[in-house]
Amino acid sequence: MICLTLSGNTLESCLEEIEANRSYIDSAELRLDYLTPEEQKKAASFPSMAGLPVILTLRRKEDGGKCTLSERERRALLLSALDGDYAYVDIEEDVKKNDVEDKAREKGVKIIRSFHDFSGIPDDIYSRLYRLAERGDIAKAAVTPHTTQDLLTLFRIAEELKDVPKIIIGMGDWGIPIRILYKKAGSLLTFACSGEAVAPGQVSAKDLKLLYRADKVNDRTGIYGIIGNPVLHTSSPSIHNPGFQSINYNAIYLPFLVDNVRIFFALAEYLKMRGFSVTVPFKDAVLMYLGNITREVKQIGACNTVVRMPGMWKGMNTDYYGFLQPILPELESGKIKSALVIGAGGASQAVVWALRNRGVKVTILNRTLTKAEKLAKLNICEYDTLDNAHLYEGKVDLVVQTTSVGLFPNFDTSPVPDFHFTGKEIAYDIIYKPKMTKFLQDAEKAGCTLHFGEEMLLEQGKLQFEAFTGYHYPKDLHPSL
């Protein structure tokens, strides 16, 4: 089930949330602690108005809720609400057997026994869940992963506690894959929001249902994703998931925040992933785990696409073609004969190699001169420090920005603040969120021709899609990035 956590302070506003999301959800959670005291008294009437199964929850402040009542007052409020036809009631792990549990069992209301950990994942999570299942109908753990290893631990709950009815929630940015792939974690449901997240890391009900089709995941679903750090800003799911749906391909594509590539490959094996995209800072780090690489990866020294092959992983680089496609007319007409490339990271490697293969004279600017020198020697081009950017004003046809400067939270920053465009240059920023970076704003003011990161993202994504599925990206599909 996709369960909508209701955040309104009145029953009416909660019903409005349900109506706005009804086509995306299977159930709802009424948070009594969010309601005003007057509305709490009327909570028994809510399930009959909701028209779907409702979980009754009155979360204490120490468990991430807003309730500050005494335990006796809290129990009385839950008892009153249970006069209504709730499908489930959430009772915390440390609450001893009492009249709330007795009334729930008498009425056939299923009990969710829950515990919350906002600091991490307890070492005994498997045994705690098992013990909770013995006390109530459903065991629930809402915990906070901080590493790729933590994520793997949560996914393994499905295997370790195969026959235990459970709800597994990964809170925060690291837990988002658990919320989307909840079925792979053996979870009966995932909690969603309608707007602002009620709990850390919640995904909207609309995205879970329409973008990810999370409720349709089964044993035959192919799992794909994108790894990076940061990665949650990515628009790649908006390219691949609609593509999968368009060709009726049973697959899902989602973001994975990663801190350790080796452990991610272990997670990929556990989930039987079929492939994944690679973004900063792992385009070099994945190479040692690949059994086969394409000519482009070998020559560029960076990989942005990994595909499962029999007995091994294969690395590819679609950044090369994705970068070139938007500027092919200017290259073929001879408008681009010289270029300034800002940055010397994984993305820059593909850009420099692509331009050099087209006969463009390239100068690499980077804050760390040794990195620029290394990349320049590999591609037989010039290099310099970012501090000397002003020396190239009016002397190049194309200026390409390949660094992460301009991404959140540095929206108002340019990697070359002292560089002044003349208006004759073509400015190309491979960042796609935001679309108009400070670098491009400066170029636009000078009258330059602009190329946007979303152009490259879409073109390289189409090639990844083909590598993942064996099919061309649908021509009539125009994803919103």
Summarize this structure briefly.
The chain is α/β, with parallel strands linked by helices and 481 residues long. The protein contains 19 helices and 21 strands.
Helix coverage percent of residues? 25-40%
In whole angstroms, the N-to-C terminal distance is 28 Å
Shape: elongated
Round the Cα radius of gyration to an integer and report it: 26 Å
Describe the structure.
With 481 residues, the chain is of the alpha/beta class. The chain contains 19 helices and 21 strands.
Write the layout of secondary structure elements.
Layout: E1 2-5, H1 11-21, E2 27-31, H2 37-40, H3 46-50, E3 54-57, H4 71-81, E4 88-92, H5 99-107, E5 110-117, H6 125-135, E6 138-143, H7 148-155, H8 157-160, E7 166-170, H9 176-180, E8 190-193, E9 203-204, H10 205-211, E10 222-228, H11 237-246, E11 251-257, H12 261-270, E12 275-278, E13 292-293, H13 295-300, E14 305-309, E15 312-316, H14 319-324, H15 328-332, E16 338-342, H16 346-357, E17 361-366, H17 369-379, E18 382-385, E19 398-401, E20 426-429, H18 438-445, E21 449-451, H19 453-469
Parallel strand pairs: 1-2, 1-8, 2-3, 3-4, 4-5, 5-6, 6-7, 8-9, 10-11, 10-12, 13-15, 16-17, 16-19, 17-18, 19-20, 20-21
Antiparallel strand pairs: 12-14, 14-15
